[in-house]
């Protein structure tokens, strides 16, 4: 029997965007800055794990508490960074869904494929 583990092809990851692994987001920048300032040696690895989780799955109380401990920030500060990132993501989605931008995107794709 195959083992279904966490991965982008699993049904629970419908809508997973692989760009999230390295996408520059407000939370990713905040977390990297705080972990680096705290002297955390694996800051880049932690950011790769927590930044996409912040947007895709959300962060539970345990994860936010761990991030607060690792960064030396308060739980409320972590929560504020989390909410600010989700707010930025919502604004990005609204822009992407704008009909004029969809037309522009299609036109840019057409131009790119032409060259």
From TrEMBL:
Residues 1-21 are annotated as: Disordered. It comes from the Bacteria. This is Uncharacterized protein. It comes from Streptomyces uncialis.
